[in-house]
Each structure stands twice: as C-alpha cells, then as structure tokens.
Amino acid sequence: MQNKGFVKVFAVLLTLVCIFYLSFSVVTNHFESKADKIAQTEGQNAADRYLDSLLNNKVYCNVWTLKECREMGIGLGLDLKGGMNVILEVSVPDVIKALADHKEETDENFRKAVDQATSAAANSQSDFITLFIKNYKALEP
Questions:
Q1: Is a pLDDT exceeding 80 seen at residue 20?
Q2: Closest CA to 92 of 121, 135, 129
Q3: What is the C-alpha separation between 107 and 11, in angstroms, rounded?
Q4: Residue 104 neighbours by CB under 8 Å, 6+ apart
Q5: What is 53-106 written as a DSSP string?
Q6: I need a surface site. Which of 29, 32, 53, 115 has the fewest CB within 10 A?
Q7: pLDDT single digits (tens) 65-112
Q8: 65 within 8 A of 59, measured Cβ to Cβ
Q9: DSSP run (H or E) holding 49
Q10: Which residues lie across from 64 on neighbouring strands?
Q11: Whole-angstrom distance, CA of residue 74 vs CA of residue 141
Q12: CA–CA separation, 91 vs 65, rounded Å?
C-alpha cells in the first residue's frame, strides 16, 4: 500500500516525458505540413527554401530550433512513412542445395531430382518441395 504514491508519481512523470518528446514530433509535423502546402502552391523548391530558412531558427518555445526538434522527435522509419517496400524472393532449389551440404556434387540422383523438380515446378501447381521429394524417392528407392 505504501508504494501507491510512488507508482502514481512515476506514472505521471512517465506521461509527462512521453508528452514532452511527442511534442517535438508535433512541431516538426506542423512545419512540414506548412511546407507541403507551400509546395502545392509555389513548388517544391519554395518548400525546401522555407524549411531551410527555419532550420536554425527557434521555433518551439523560443528554445529549440527546427533542426533540434527533428533530432529530438520520435523517428519514424521509412516503413511508417510509406516510403519503403521490400520483397524477398528465395530460391527454393538453392536452399535445398545449401541444406544438402554439397550433396549435389557427389550424388547424381540428388542433382537429377532437383533438375526434374525445377522443370516440373514451372508447369505444376504443386510446390517445389513436394515435387523434389517425389522425384528423389523415385530415383533413390
């Protein structure tokens, strides 16, 4: 029961710290949205000049510059800003060969099964692993 006061004070302080750091993001977003409006009317160069002119001016509580606000604000990655899409393609035959520990160099049936599964996968609805297993079992009883 004695720690309730400490927990409440800690919760309030944590909330204040969060609000403090979120406020830098709000200020930065405010000036960037103004720059976007300028870009729509006057062009992107005018918006860039506007942001550059404010970079070293104190814009938040007459203490922090826009550059400092950008540094202290919560950083959003490219994925949160919608600027990055990544697609990873994995070659299943290469993975099987790597997991086989260079078996394709010594085992002729393994190499044939991989080649047959590769050619069959181009025309089949089955996945490569299923085709490979079927071909390997047929070649290696």
A1: yes
A2: 129
A3: 65
A4: 97, 110, 111, 114
A5: HHTTSEEETTTEEHHHHHHHSPPPPHHHHT---------HHHHHHHHTTSHHHH
A6: 53
A7: 988 888 888 877 766 776 677 788 988 888 888 888 767 677 888 888
A8: yes
A9: helix 44-54
A10: 60
A11: 61
A12: 50
H helix or E strand, kind and range, residue 136: helix 128-139
Q: Tokens 């938040």 label which residue? A: 60
Q: Which of 93, 123, 126, 92 has its CA nearest to residue 110? A: 93
Residue 57: per-residue pLDDT: 87
Element (H, E) at 50: helix 44-54
Phi-psi category of residue 82: left, alpha or beta, with phi > 0 → left and psi -120 to 50 → alpha? left
DSSP string for 3-41: THHHHHHHHHHHHHHHHHHHHHHHHHHHHHHHHHHHHHH
Which amino acid would we find at residue 120?
A: A
Q: What pTM did the predictor assign?
A: 0.52
Mean pLDDT of the chain: 86
- What does the alpha-carbon distance between residue 14 and residue 122 come to, in Å, rounded to a whole number? 57
In one-letter notation, the amino acid at residue 124 is: S
Terminal alpha carbon distance of the chain: 72
